[in-house]
Amino acid sequence: MDSPDTDWADVRLHVVTGKGGTGKTTVAAALALALASGGRKVLLVEVEGRQGIAQIFDLPPLPYEERRIAVAPSGGDVYALAIDPEEAMLEYMEMFYGMRRAGRALTKMGIVDFATTVAPGFRDVLVTGKTTEAVRRRGKNGRRIYDAVVLDAPPTGRITRFLNVTKEVAGLARVGPIKNHSDLVSGVVKSPETAVHFVTLLEEMPVQETLDGIAELRAAGLPAGGVFINMVRQSLLPQAALDTAVKGRFDAGELALGLKAAGVTDGAQATALAEALAEEVVEHAHRTELERAERETLAGAGLTRYELPLLADGVDLAGLYELAESMRTQGAA
Q1: Helix extents (H) in the chain
Q2: Domain range holding 257?
Q3: What is the pTM of this model?
């Protein structure tokens, strides 16, 4: 199927990262739905063993196999894969050494845990290798099996090391299958077919971590994608009222008169209620001002930004479809 006219029409591997608590897995799931819309086939991959995809889609824990989990808007399928490093290790040994049975024996001996503890980069090679294989895989007709792959990746603080597999295994293997495999993975990850998207909130710490992550990614020659600003709250007041509140000129007395005129309450009750509401207005105005400043800070990174609404009813299937539609409307998918 031809690529849709979107900001990332030529991208096949969408890596999603973000500081803990920003909704990284939720955004990855919604992006997979958005990309699959219109009859496309998308694979959603997780690598941290948290079964986050199963929780979001309200499914039992996912096995180590690709299975369809959702139908996208206007048709299209989302498949999911929860990568198990041990199973990926067995596949790797069978692929390059024809030693699957021996691999199972080594697994029982704990050799996989030992190897990935001594050389943590090897675990990353296994899981990124499985992901990039799905990106490259073709059917008997020569067409790609998946139109796109979305990877729910580790947090921002670890994303560059996770993706920079060639550097991470340099001390582990300079020649041979492991080196060749890591080079193959790196060829996909560093290509124009890959984009690393960041998920953040309009708060100082996640914004700063996002900027640091983008800088590290660029320094490593890895492809930065877009920035998804999650859980955006709409302002409930006109800008003029917010400006007045920030400057400390919001008149609680005028608000009390308005409450009485509207028949909401009267007398001392109106004054007390107006003062309480005025405090909330000032707090809301200051928060809106801080969020505006964080938006400007993010703009300095020079990446395309998408704003996703705070879901009033929390994250459920309906919420995922709402986020997916927001992404499509903004041109992200």
Answers
A1: 24-36, 52-56, 85-97, 100-108, 111-118, 120-136, 156-163, 165-168, 177-189, 204-219, 239-246, 252-261, 267-299, 317-329
A2: 239-287
A3: 0.85
